[in-house]
Structure formats: structure tokens, C-alpha cells
Design brief:
The complex is a heterodimer. Chain A has 20 helices and 24 strands. By secondary structure, chain A is an alpha/beta fold. In chain B, the strands form three sheets. Chain B has a five-stranded mixed β-barrel, surrounded by six helices. Chain B has a two-stranded antiparallel sheet with strand order 1-2. Chain B has a two-stranded antiparallel sheet with strand order 9-10. The chains are: A alpha/beta, B alpha/beta.
């Protein structure tokens, strides 16, 4: 049996390699369903199949073509089965129209008329963690996955579709009566839990790449270097602690104490100290050991002949670690040959220091890509160095925004996202890609700015127009709140409709009462929630005004308006923006308004 | 730093100059990369928004530079390889605010002397400030009709490098046909150069350049390699026949001296027989404040025509000539001391104000009567 597994990532830009743990999970599912088949061969597809939110929102029917296009690459390889793994998605992106388009795609692939060379017989869908049949506020999917299939008259006489849901249900449609073993969900949930709780996976999620102008210890041809970004972890003490515990059992070589440096990583400091307390291992800060104080005395007198392990937050060139080891060896203390770093350019680096080989192990391998000062654009411009430890500014530097634009490119403003009241910008940065690539840090900065300036109230929820980049931004921001914050997406066409009616939302709220977004927002009224209105771009304040009018009508307080980029920074009048207005970048250039609608 | 005020908290953001410089860098990069003027013009909007955090001049400077970078590409597309010879920025910089003459002074005393000579209030506040540099504007009526527009600045620090930097700032921001340094210097009394006299430089001799060697006996020796900066030919022509006395130098100087605050004048008994004279001679310029009489040695070792010594002329001249479009220059130095051990005493006697005023008077007479602008 030959099969391909498509790792479909919804609402994501850019394909990424499929993790080995996920490949194992998929192989396990296939073997469980077909235990009698001896030769199961997995073909190709080493990368995820990303379907951008733009496609989901504006052209869901294109999903059909995407699937067909991928399968066509295997048309000469006698493919028997396609596994469509959608389990790694948020249920909010798994919309009905996307699913139906997928079904259309697989029906085409199974149809000998559409796919005469190699019609595929079996399709297995692994669905995301969905809310099930239970109605839930805050979700746009409120029906059971099985109901999708009843909506559509499937051409199931030619193929077999297996649907595995998260709520321990399986559905088999079609001619081929595949028997799904009862214990398949053990594998399903075990793997899902493993993926979700894997500390490395979580640590990666909590790793933020920060842009700036940073010093590097590296020299290229004798010239000092700079780095355009650095990495840090945020609130990751638990994950580092778990990883440290596993690492220690493998590599500590019976070390009896720890010496560490954690200048730039509070999470590491927290994790090491918690670990040391649990394991009853003495722990010393490197600066204290090297200083002339009681700790220095304690280490050099009492710990002599005992092995210690060196743990650092980041390794770039290994120069600092080399210095540490050389200095510590001079104190006649014995370093473990295994050194641990949270970040390093590779998972393990072998380094000879004082004629002994050491292995530097890293939890996360990140390369810093140093640039010689003479070629560093930020040096050429004359920009000051950035702090590794804290944010230098609340807003972005000009270099940050332009560096991001340089990375992602520009495009005409998507016409679907242009307010009815104004004309489109000819060209704008590709904000969706920008937020996808740099959003972790941008969201971190937004949260930082809010906390340090106006504070964050309880019962906060996020509201924004249902647009690609705004959604990407709110996803990143939700992560900052551990996904425990409600997000309400207002369809752009409803905003347009309200604007045409002088921002009167009365009729819309009545007509759309059964829509998820109206139910969601109405449920927030009784909770005393306040709104954080976000947007990826503020061109004229018209969208903000419309959303604000709706919230006012519903007697929901507005806490802050926070567009990512504010193209209308000059019009800071209380009348136009009667609430706190913050942004990460002020880029003057208000949207040109249509005359007949400019008063809306 | 500019600040964003939210509920009383001062939030710092990036310095506007850094934002503007970054913006210009990316305008240049993106015009090449995207070849999309509309997008690049939106960067210009950003530049405009950031540049207004500075003063009028910085705003104009950054905006102009941004515009040039965008339209340079349009020019290149239009003219093809021929456009390599044309720089919009350079073309526009030639249209910057023009003055006929720039006057550079080093210290406050010299500035006040110039302002007084030009008929202005010596305490007048500057007319324009660009960064930390201050500028005063004035006019000189020429004999035979017509005005010369004048821009004046003050370096505010002694020695050659600060002076060169001030000249560069002035020439980066303004166009001038002639730049004159008006200041004080130490004079060579052995050649009858007295306090209050004025030397117009026919040559500026930078005496600092030298080679240190050991001779055959291993004794360290210093071999002088002075750099000579001859007065530009056009100015030399104007100055060779310039005789201030032909234009009532003494009486005009005395009239101006009367306007000088009493506290800024030397003791009145020393002014009794004061008759400042003018000499067209060589000025030695280096980094040393001479107070040991070594001007005499310089005359013997370096150049027989040395009559005065100062610390700025070399930087001044180099900043005028070592540029894509060299500027005509002249130097007038009033003698405020004799470079000897009594230098500080002479300074306390307020000879610097007087010497500045005499040099400024000579400069004024030169501009009014003998200077022929280059375009004529």
C-alpha cells in the first residue's frame, strides 16, 4: 500500500518540515487501520501544506485545487491512500466551506473521469480538536464534524472516506467497509497530547526572535560583527525545568553542583533554581563564583575535587563559555564535559578548551547570522546598539519595520480589505506574512506596551475586522494571553453595511443574531468585558469608529484601540479617537476617502 | 528622543534622526528592489512624519534627500546609462540657500567683532540654528552699488578640526562664493607687528607636519614638512592691491571701537597711540597655542614671511578646498598677543575684542571695496 500524508496547516503562510513525531503518529494510524497490510510505503511530502487565511476567508473553493495539485505529483506512483492530517489546527480555522472544498477535492481524485490514470480509493481525515456537537460561544464551528458529511451528497460510491474525530468517533463513508479498531483513539490522543505537551515544542513556541542591532562576539576576518536579531524565551521556566531534568539524568556525569550564567534569560534562572531545590543540588551564579566573596570561597574550598556542570543561556561563538571554563579550571574545580545552553547555533557543539573536549548541548539550535560591521546596514546608518535584556522603545524602530518589509515584500492592498469609505493603498507591505514571521515579537511588544503604559484590565477581549493580517495578529496576541482571551472577528461586509447606514448596527445585530460573532459578543455584555480593538492597519479610523459604535450600542466598554501600523497618526483628536490609541509604528499616510462617504 | 504621552507616562521612542536616516537608507534600497515609485513615496510620507520632529532645516534636508533618491531612479530609467553623470541630489544641493560670503569666527570675542563691524548688535541672537550650529545673517553694501549677502557662524572651539567641521557644516547647508575666517592671532613683534594690527594671509602654512628620525649618531631629529596653502588666485588678485588705509581704516576702526563696551576694551592709556596697520603676509597654523616666542623660530625655520600664528587656519583652508566643489577663502587675523610669556596678561587686558574688531573692520573694507565676486 502506498500513501502520502498531507499535513494541512490552515491559516498559515509558508510550508515547514513535518516533525518526525508527527510522521510517526500518522504511520501509527495507518498501521492501526490496516494491520493486515504488510508493505505500507509512505511517499514524499516532507513539508506541511499551508493554506493561508486569505484563501480560507476569500477563496475557500481553491482548497480543492490545492489538494488536487499536490496529489497530481504522485499520479504515476500508484497511490492507494491519502491521509489528510488536519489535527494540527485550531478548530476556528476549520470552517465548513474549507472542509467541503476538501471533500470536493478528494472526490475528484477518486473519480476515474477526473483522475483517469490513478483514481485514489481511500482518504483518511484526521480532524482537529473540535468542539464536537456541543454549541460553544467563541467558536465559529458549532456543529459536529459528522454533520458536514450529511450536508454534502458525497460521491462515495467510488471511494472511501474515513473520518476520525477528536471526540472518539469514527465515520466511514463509501463502498469499502473499512473497520476502524476501537483502540485507535488511544494512539490519536496519546500523540496529540505528546505533541501538545512536548516541552521542546512548547519552548519553541515561547521563543521569541527579537529584531534589533546587537553586538556579536564573533569576528569575521578579524572584524567585529553585529546581529540583526536575538532570541529570548518568555515565561518558559516550566518547560526549561522539564527539559533540564531530562538532560541532567543523561549528561550530568554525577555532577554535584551547578554553575550557571543567565544574564538574558529569566526563565532559565527560574528553572535552574527550582530544579536545584527539588534535586537538592547546590547552584551558584558564575559571577559570584568568580568574585572575591563567600560563594567564591565556598566553591574553591569546599567543592574542590567535585564535578560541576556549567549551564548558560546562550552560546554564539563559544568564546564566553571558553573563558568561563578556563577561568573555572584555574580555580581547581572540575567541569563536567557536558555543558548546557538554552540556545546555540547547533544542537551539540564539540569544543576543545584547555586541552579537553567539551560538548555544548542546546535545547534550541538557532543561528545568529553575524554580519561584519563594515557590511552591517545598521552600522552604516549609524544606529545605536540594542539592549538584549529589555525593549529599548515601546514602538518599533524604523529599521525594524523596513527590515520586515524587506523580508516579506509588498503587494497591492487586497481589495476585499479596503473599507467602502476609502480608496486602496497602491502598495502595502505583505502584512500577513510579516505577522506570521515576526508576530511573536510584535505581539510581545504590544503586550509590553499595554502593560507599561495603560495596564491590562481583567475581562479583556479582542475584537477586530475579520481580515487576514488582523486575524494573524490576534492569533499571536492570544498566545501572549495563553489563549485564554476571547477573540471576536467582525466580518468586513457587515462593517461596510453598518458604515453605509451611518454606523447604525441595530438591524445587523438583529438580522445576524444567530451568527457566531453576534452570539459571541452578546455573551460578553453580561460579563462586564472591555474591548481591545486591534487591526493590522489603521488608514482613516473609519473601521475603528464603526466597531466602536457597535460596542457602544451594546454598552461594552472600549479599553484601547491598537492598530499594528497607524497610517493616520496625525488625527489624534479626542473626537476621532476618544479612547487610548496605541500602535507599534506610526507611518503617516492617511487613506484617501471617497467624498460621498467621507462623513460616514 | 521624542515622547509619546499616555496618561502621564513618558514613553520613549526612537530618535527622529535615526528614523530618518533609516528611512533614507531603505528608500534607496527599495527604489532599486521594488522599482515601485508609489510604494517608495509612501516611505517619503513616513520620512516627512518623522522629520517634522526636528527643526525646519532637518525636515527639509531629509525630505529633499528622500525625494532625490526616489526620482534618481526615474531619471535613470529615462536617461539610461547617460544618467550616471547626473545626480539630482547634487543638482539640488547647488540650489541650496546661497550667500555671497560666509564669515567664520572661532570664539565669542571674534563673533562680536564681526557683528559690530557689520553694524549689528553684538549681542544679537542667531537667525538660524541647524543642529548645534548657529548662524547670523547680514548684508554688506558694496562701493559702487549692490549688496553682498553674508552668513556668519562661530566654531566655539579652538584648533583645526572643530574649525574644519564648522566650515563643512556651513558649506553642506548653504552655498557661498567666498568664505572668510576673521579672528585673532599671535603676532611677530620682531617684525613690528603690534597688538591690534591685522594680517591678511597670502599663504597659510601648516607647520605641524614633520618626520621624526634619528641621525647618524642616533640623536632624534625632527624634519619639518610644512604644508603650504596659497591664497586662491582670484582672491589673491583682489587682495594684492588692497590697502585698507585707502578706505579710512583707522577712522572707521576708531568709530567701531567706541561702540565696544568699555569692559571689553584694553586699558584706555594703551589705546592712546593705537594705530592699527594691515599687512599681507604669511600665517603659520598648527595645533599649538604659542606663548614662548617661538614664532620667531618659525620665521627662520619655515618661512621668512610668517608674521602671525594661530590654531585654526589650516583646518579652515582644507575644509574649503578639499571638497568636490572648492570654495574661495581668505583669512584676516587681528593680533591680540605676541605669542610670548605675557600672553595671558595681554588676554586679560582684553586685546582679543579689539583685535577681532580690527580684523573684522579690514574684512568689511575688503568686501566693500576690493572683493569682486567670482561670477563677475
Amino acid at each position: 500500500m502506498r500513501y502520502i500524508a498531507l499535513n494541512i496547516r490552515l491559516g498559515v503562510v509558508g510550508d515547514k518540515p513535518i516533525e518526525k513525531i508527527r510522521q510517526k503518529f500518522q504511520d501509527g494510524i495507518i498501521k492501526k487501520i490496516f494491520p493486515e497490510v504488510e508493505n505500507i510505503e509512505r511517499l514524499g511530502e516532507q513539508y506541511t501544506t499551508s493554506i493561508p487565511y486569505r484563501t480560507i476567508l476569500y477563496k475557500p473553493q481553491h482548497v480543492r485545487d490545492i489538494i488536487k495539485k499536490i496529489a497530481s505529483r504522485y499520479s504515476d506512483q500508484s497511490l492507494d491512500l491519502i491521509l489528510l492530517d488536519l489535527s494540527n489546527n485550531d478548530c476556528q480555522e476549520f470552517r465548513e466551506d474549507v472542509f467541503l472544498s476538501l471533500i470536493d477535492g478528494v472526490n475528484d481524485l477518486a473519480d476515474p473521469e477526473e483522475n483517469p490514470i490513478n483514481p485514489i480509493k481511500i482518504f483518511i481525515f484526521l480532524l482537529p480538536l473540535m468542539p464536537g456537537s456541543r454549541k460553544r460561544n467563541g467558536s465559529e464551528i458549532s456543529i459536529n464534524s459528522s454533520e458536514y458529511l450529511q450536508i454534502k451528497n458525497m460521491k462515495s460510491e467510488k471511494n472511501t472516506i474515513v473520518l476520525l474525530t477528536n471526540d472518539y468517533k469514527s465515520f466511514v463513508y463509501g463502498a469499502n467497509p473499512i473497520v476502524i479498531p476501537d483502540d485507535i483513539f488511544e494512539i490519536y490522543h496519546k500523540h496529540m497530547a505528546a505533541l501538545k505537551e512536548n516541552p521542546i515544542h512548547l519552548l519553541c513556541e515561547k521563543t521569541i526572535r527579537k529584531l534589533g542591532h546587537f553586538h556579536s562576539n564573533k569576528k569575521i576576518n578579524g572584524e567585529r560583527c553585529c546581529r540583526p536579531y536575538t532570541y529570548f524565551t518568555y515565561d518558559a521556566g516550566k518547560e526549561i525545568g522539564e527539559l533540564l531534568s531530562v538532560w541532567w539524568s543523561k549528561y550530568s556525569n554525577n555532577s554535584e553542583y551547578i554553575i550557571y550564567d543567565s544574564n538574558n534569560n529569566d526563565s532559565l534562572h527560574e528553572a535552574i533554581n527550582a530544579f536545584a531545590e527539588i534535586e537538592k543540588i547546590p547552584v551558584y551564579y558564575i559571577e559570584d563564583v568568580m568574585s572575591d566573596n563567600s560563594i567564591h570561597k565556598e566553591v574553591t574550598e569546599e567543592k574542590i575535587d567535585k564535578t560541576f556542570t556549567l549551564i548558560v543561556d546562550a552560546v554564539d561563538t563559544s568564546a564566553t563559555v571558553t573563558n568561563y571554563i578556563e577561568d573555572l579550571v584555574k580555580l581547581n574545580v572540575y567541569p563536567n564535559e557536558n555543558i548546557l545552553s538554552v540556545f546555540a547555533p547547533a544542537a551539540s557543539i564539540i569544543k576543545e578548551i584547555s586541552r579537553k573536549k567539551y560538548v555544548i548541548h542546546a535545547f534550541i539550535s538557532k543561528k545568529h547570522e553575524p554580519i561584519p560591521e563594515s557590511k552591517c546596514p545598521q552600522c552604516i546608518i549609524g544606529l545605536p546598539y540594542s539592549s538584549e535584556l529589555s525593549e529599548d522603545y515601546f514602538m518599533l524602530r524604523a529599521y525594524d519595520i523596513y527590515h520586515m518589509i524587506d523580508s516579506v515584500g509588498i503587494e497591492p492592498e487586497p481589495k476585499e480589505e479596503v473599507p467602502e469609505t476609502g480608496y486602496p493603498y497602491s502598495y502595502i507591505p505583505k502584512y500577513e506574512e510579516m505577522i506570521e514571521e515576526f508576530g511573536d515579537w510584535l505581539a510581545y511588544k504590544m503586550e509590553y506596551y499595554l502593560i507599561k503604559s495603560i495596564g491590562i484590565p481583567e475581562n479583556l477581549f479582542i475584537i477586530h475586522p475579520e481580515e487576514v493580517a488582523s486575524k494573524a495578529l490576534s492569533d499571536k496576541l492570544r498566545f501572549r494571553f495563553n489563549k485564554k482571551i476571547t477573540t471576536v472577528k467582525i466580518p468586513r461586509y457587515q462593517i461596510t453595511k453598518a458604515q453605509k447606514n451611518n454606523n447604525d448596527w441595530s438591524e445587523i445585530l438583529i438580522e445576524e443574531a444567530k451568527e457566531g460573532w453576534v452570539e459571541q459578543i452578546e455573551s460578553l455584555i453580561d460579563q462586564g468585558a472591555t474591548a481591545l480593538i486591534i487591526d493590522y492597519l489603521n488608514g482613516s479610523g473609519k473601521t475603528f469608529q464603526s466597531l466602536q459604535k457597535m460596542l457602544t450600542k451594546l454598552e461594552i466598554g472600549v479599553y484601547c484601540y491598537f492598530p499594528f501600523v497607524d497610517r493616520d497618526p496625525g488625527a489624534d483628536s479626542v473626537e476621532k479617537y476618544p479612547f487610548n490609541k496605541l500602535c507599534l509604528y506610526e507611518w503617516y499616510g492617511p487613506r484617501q476617502l471617497k467624498r460621498n462617504l467621507s462623513n460616514v | 528622543m521624542f515622547s509619546n504621552h499616555q496618561e502621564g507616562i513618558i514613553l520613549q521612542n526612537e530618535d527622529f534622526e535615526h528614523s530618518c536616516k533609516t528611512n533614507l537608507y531603505f528608500i534607496e534600497k527599495f527604489t532599486q528592489k521594488y522599482k515601485n515609485d508609489k510604494f517608495c513615496l509612501s516611505l517619503l510620507q513616513d520620512l516627512a512624519w518623522k522629520s517634522v520632529k526636528g527643526n525646519l532645516n532637518s525636515k527639509n534636508k531629509y525630505l529633499l534627500s528622500g525625494l532625490c533618491k526616489i526620482y534618481q531612479r526615474t531619471l535613470e530609467e529615462t536617461l539610461g546609462s547617460f544618467s550616471k553623470n547626473i545626480s539630482i541630489e547634487e543638482a539640488i544641493s547647488h540650489n541650496k540657500k546661497l550667500f555671497d560670503v560666509g564669515i567664520v569666527t572661532i570664539k565669542r570675542e571674534e563673533l562680536e567683532g564681526v557683528l559690530l563691524a557689520l553694524g549689528m548688535d553684538s549681542q544679537k541672537d542667531h537667525d538660524l540654528k541647524i543642529g548645534s550650529r548657529r548662524y547670523w545673517f547680514s548684508k554688506v553694501e558694496k562701493r559702487g552699488g549692490g549688496d553682498l549677502s553674508i552668513i556668519i557662524t562661530m566654531v566655539n572651539r579652538p584648533r583645526n578640526v572643530p574649525c574644519a567641521m564648522a566650515v563643512d557644516s556651513l558649506l553642506s547647508n548653504f552655498g557661498v562664493n567666498l568664505l572668510i575666517l576673521v579672528g585673532v592671532a599671535a603676532g611677530l613683534k620682531e617684525k613690528d607687528i603690534k597688538l591690534g594690527d591685522v594680517i591678511g594671509a597670502d599663504l597659510v602654512l601648516d607647520y605641524e607636519h614633520s618626520r621624526l628620525e634619528k641621525d647618524e649618531d642616533g640623536v632624534k631629529i625632527k624634519l619639518f614638512r610644512p604644508e603650504q596653502h596659497e591664497l586662491p588666485f582670484k582672491i589673491q588678485q583682489n587682495l594684492t592691491d588692497f590697502k585698507p588705509d585707502n578706505f579710512d581704516f583707522e577712522s572707521k576702526f576708531q568709530k567701531l571701537l567706541m561702540k565696544l563696551d568699555k569692559k571689553k576694551k584694553p586699558p584706555s592709556k594703551k589705546l592712546k597711540d593705537l594705530k592699527p596697520k594691515y599687512e599681507f603676509a604669511t600665517v603659520a597654523a598648527g595645533e599649538k597655542l604659542i606663548a614662548d616666542g617661538s614664532i620667531v623660530d618659525m620665521r627662520f625655520e619655515l618661512h621668512e614671511r610668517i608674521r602671525a600664528a594661530d590654531q585654526e587656519d589650516s583646518g579652515f583652508v582644507k575644509a574649503c578646498i578639499y571638497r568636490d566643489h572648492p570654495v574661495l577663502w581668505a583669512v584676516f587675523r587681528g593680533i591680540s598677543d605676541q605669542g610670548e610669556a605675557n600672553k595671558e596678561y595681554q588676554k586679560k587686558e582684553n586685546w582679543q575684542y579689539l583685535a577681532s574688531l580690527s580684523a573684522a573692520t579690514v574684512a568689511l573694507l575688503f568686501l566693500q571695496n576690493s572683493y569682486s565676486p567670482a561670477s563677475e
